[in-house]
Amino acid sequence: MAKKIQAIIDNKKITADKDQTILEAAKKNGIEIPALCYHPDLDIKSNCRICVVEIKGVPDLKPACRTVIKDGMKIITNSSKIRKARKINLELIFAQHYEECNDCVWNFNCQLLKLAKKYNVKIARFPDRKTNFPVYQFGPSLIFDSSKCIDCRNCVDICEKQGIGFLEIKKRGYKIGIVPSKDKNKDCIYCGQCIVHCPAGALEAVGEFEEVEKPLQQTEDKIVIAQFAPAIRTSIGEEFNMPYGALITKKLAAGIKKLGFDKVFDTSVGADFATCEEADELIERLKSKEKLPMFTSCCPAWVKYIEFYHPEFIPNLTTVRSPHIILGGLIKTFWAKKEKIDPRKIVVVSIMPCVAKKYEITRSELKINGLTPVDYVLTTRELAYLFKKHKIDLKKIKGQNLDDPLGFPSGAGVIYGATGGMIESALRTAYEKLTPRQNKFGAGQSGKKLLKLNFGQVRGMEGIRQAEIKMNSQLIRVAIVNGIGNAQKILKELKKKPNLYDYVEVMACLGGCIGGGGQPVPTDPEIRKHRADGLYRADKAKKMRLAHENPIVKRVYKDFFTLQKIHLICHTKYQRKKREGFKILPKGAH
Amino acid sequence: MIIEKLKKANLKGRGGAGFPTGLKWEMVKKSRAKRKYIICNGSEGEPNVFKDGFILKNYPEEIIDGIKIALEVINDSSAYIYLRKDYYQKFKNKLKKIIGRSPIILFKETGGYLCGEETTLLESIEGKKEEPRAKPPYPSEAGLWGYPTLINNVETFYYVAQIAKNNYQETRFYSLSGDVKNKGVYELPVKWTIKQILKKTNNFPRFNFFVQSGGGAAGEILTDKEINRPVKGTGAIIVYNLKKTKPVQLMKKWINFFLKENCGKCLPCREGVYRINEILNKNKIDKKLLEDLLFVLKETSFCPLGKSIAIPFRDLINKIYKV
What we know:
The structure holds two protein chains of two kinds. Chain A has 17 helices and 19 strands. By secondary structure, chain A is of the alpha/beta class. Chain A has two domains: 4-78, Ubiquitin-like (UB roll) (Roll); 214-570, Rossmann fold (3-Layer(aba) Sandwich), CATH 3.40.50.1780. Chain A has a five-stranded mixed beta sheet with strand order 2-1-5-3-4, with helices on both faces. In chain A, strands 10-7-6-19 form a four-stranded antiparallel beta sheet. In chain A, strands 12-11-14-15 form a four-stranded parallel beta sheet, sandwiched between helices. The longest helix of chain A has 22 residues, at 267-288. The N and C termini of chain A lie far apart (52 Å). By secondary structure, chain B is of the alpha/beta class. Chain B folds into three domains: 2-164, 3-Layer(aba) Sandwich (Rossmann fold); 171-241, Roll (Ubiquitin-like (UB roll)), CATH 3.10.20.600; 247-320, de novo design (two linked rop proteins) (Up-down Bundle). Helix content of chain B is 43%, strand content 17%. Chain B has helices spanning 2-8, 21-30, 51-58, 60-73, 85-99, 118-125, 154-164, 194-200, 247-261, 267-280, 287-300, 304-320; strands spanning 36-42, 77-83, 104-108, 149-153, 171-178, 184-189, 209-214, 220-223, 236-241. In chain B, the strands form two sheets. A five-stranded mixed beta sheet of chain B has the order 6-5-9-7-8. Chain B has a four-stranded parallel beta sheet with strand order 3-2-1-4, with helices on both faces. In chain B, helix 1 runs antiparallel to helix 2 (21-30), helix 4 (60-73) crosses helix 7 and helix 10 (267-280) packs antiparallel against helix 11. Chain B starts with a helix and ends with a helix. At the A-B interface, helix 2 of A face helix 9, helix 10 and helix 11 of B.
């Protein structure tokens, strides 16, 4: 147990752990101290100087974020001196930040605005000095409007932590600025973690929010279909004042219908197909002992990371497409055929917790008979924005079922949204397939029925987790990585010991898709945990928890799939990537 | 033993902060680590301060002697001399000769004025962006590459050598400049007042004047009635002719220096200095706004540079530039 110390904050006696900062100790005791550059995912920088407090006997104000609380310390967090300092510092922040509140990922839920109100800040006390600063676009996924940047460096630090280092600090003094790298050996992988760690809304997805209506503005003969990712159902509620982790699949479906989409399907069904294919591929590779360990490929940022930074590992990636691409393909083939609709008339819109998915759909090798499986990607935030714009309140709306036949996933398909979920789904299926009396869909009949469906070893939030799972007589060694900075460590290990693992899951974002770059802000470890817990609750509540037991999966394999079709709809290829870099957009173009 | 001698001589660091040297040496000596560093700080960069250059030119042997004493006292240590770019060019050959085979490395400053701030200096040697570190930990606990590090100014090492030889007369080096006849560096008693120094050096003005004491950017402003006191900081005295000096011009000179030299890491310094410059370039100076900015600079800046900016401005406004 950590040693305890006694201190006084705002005349309240408190107990804190030794080595705890004033900010942490205050928070634990219900005292909020405002902080902008502080983020629990990042090292303390103490740049923004908003969290300053008074300590008795210490001459100047001290930053609560990095001052360690000491036994007997008397701390005041809200005196007139402190309010004055915070007010002026906030005015200096607003002097940097070009306001465009109507088009911001924070959606009026912004810390800056809340603090401006609380401290009576004159937002326009100084003229904005960054009005003419450039707007950058990284590939088809991200926008960085440096005229909104407050130089707190959260983005630089998270990009560094992700092992990418694409965002750099250049120059010094007031000329200091954050810019995309010109280093030809670096490229953005579009994870979008910078977006969810920026307190000032300087980063956003491409199209956010000026193009949100575009998918719905189709000619009359078009059929517009939405699918939403597993991780959305426990995060979008936050935008409507619901508790963190609230599971609202049916409300979400109802809201999407109300927007005018013709059908709503579930990307988790795509995940069930991905699971079956990936389990097969794993079994094959284990048999042939080739191209091991197998890497998951459902995270497009991770795929780009391999293709750009470590192409030598391309053969390790599973050839299985990501769930929404598979589902998009099924909608435009299987479903179109079943409904007797010309697939060219179908518009598929994926609602994703992700900005890299905006890049993924531009990959030409994914086309099926000349058609892209998915036409648009909207982030969770963009969908929430659309709902609000159309006065749809998810909190109040009555839930609706998703549509047949691609709206009903197994529990395995739902946990894909949390780190470890993909591998757990594949292991459940592989486990049943790897039994002596195995045949393709034999669970419960000819395969060995899984007694316990949870693989607790692969769950959790640590950056790297390892587990060994006994299947039949074989020991399968898996590694689960979230936060792409951790992937670097695994790849380094594998270069030394290529046989260390059989199967590796990597999700570029912290916590997996539930902490994705397209998710609502703010995000932090606690919020991510709530969102993940919500998904595991959903899985637990389902009767059908195995991907290959999903009736629609069985039906498609039986009635529709041929080897050629499986290849066309469910598999893809990869190639070494050239740097995509960035471009500077004309002002007002985004 | 030298540490006892340093304590007894009451030697205080001559880099500006005036921390007791003996105590600093003791802290580094006592800390437990497999490696330790000694750094001689010769990055002298504040306007009107030039005494370290003078000592480097005239007494390089004594400086090296002082560093060698530290190398002996502090186990498993090696040393750096961190030099301003032009000092490095001017003095490297001579210093290298004197250093010989001692474990002392000459290091050319990588950035500007802020590199003289001890933690920024550490970042600079480590090849990182020249910005201050948060303290604690102090360099004596975790300094260069995380090892306990003794950082002393050029002048401090000079006096360490004097104290070792029992030659210390409680003097220091003063840089005199501004509206004076005899500009230059003078070695005079520590306890002397500004008035005594000006008189002794034949620099006491016949006109109405005020002085800046400590350094030419962040030093305090004193009227001619306030000079019966010793000099603070890095030992600079700058004399200003009261009639001929335009306060706004002087403030502009200071702010230009800070505008050029601040690192940009923390908000109040980066933005505050930028806005003070803006205010000074307007026809009418908004004193309320200026005071607000000085307030956050003093109270909330990350490092001593930002905190120090308020001193000369407030003094000048309160004492000289009364409107």
